[in-house]
């Protein structure tokens, strides 16, 4: 049985003994995929995993970044990405985009 995260009071994290783990989550998703930061301009993909701490995953979920959702990279400017998800454009820095794993279209 999965433990509950003290930070968010849910079982969204890989918590150990009721304490949030010290690492930032898995380095690579078990579902496969590539980091969103590596997707080229004009390409899109389907979200398969979101890594990172519970707070980051909750924040991204509130923005619409949930597993199964399509996301497109509109443009990359100075290392930041302009994304389109659910009809909304969102700017995201490369480090945060590297926590979102996608399966690119056409794969």
Describe this structure in words.
- The chain is mainly beta and 107 residues long.
- It has a domain of 71 residues: SH3 type barrels.
- 12% of the residues lie in helices and 32% in strands.
- It is built from 2 helices and 6 strands.
- A 6-stranded antiparallel β-sheet has the order 1-6-2-3-4-5.
- The longest helix has 9 residues.
- It is globular and about 30 Å long.
Name a few traits of the molecule.
107 residues; mainly beta; SH3 type barrels; six-stranded antiparallel beta sheet; 2 helices; 32% strand; globular; disordered N terminus
- Number of helical segments? 2
Global geometry: globular
Low-confidence stretches: 1-28
Number of DSSP strand runs: 6
What's the end-to-end separation, in Å?
34 Å
Q: What is the arithmetic mean of pLDDT?
A: 79
Which topology of one domain does CATH recognise?
SH3 type barrels
CATH second-level architecture of one domain = Roll
Largest sheet: 6 strands, antiparallel
Element-by-element helix/strand order? EEHEEEHE
Structural class: mainly beta
- Tell me what portion of residues adopts beta-strand conformation: 25-35%
How is the quaternary structure best described?
single chain
**Strands across the major sheet, in which order?**
1-6-2-3-4-5
Give the CATH H-level superfamily of one domain.
Ferrous iron transport protein A (FeoA)
Query: What Rg is obtained from the alpha carbons, in whole angstroms?
Result: 14 Å
Highest-level CATH class of one domain: Mainly Beta
């Amino acid at each position: 049985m999965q433990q509950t995260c003290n930070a968010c009071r849910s079982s969204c994290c890989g918590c150990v003994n009721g304490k949030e783990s010290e690492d930032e989550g898995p380095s690579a998703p078990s579902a496969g995929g590539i980091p969103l930061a590596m997707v080229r301009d004009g390409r899109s993909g389907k979200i398969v995993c979101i890594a990172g701490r519970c707070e980051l995953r909750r924040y991204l979920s509130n923005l619409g970044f949930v597993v199964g959702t399509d996301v497109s990279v509109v443009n990359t400017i100075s290392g930041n990405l302009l994304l389109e998800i659910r009809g909304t454009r969102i700017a995201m820095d490369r480090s945060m985009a590297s926590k979102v794993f996608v399966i690119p279209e056409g794969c």
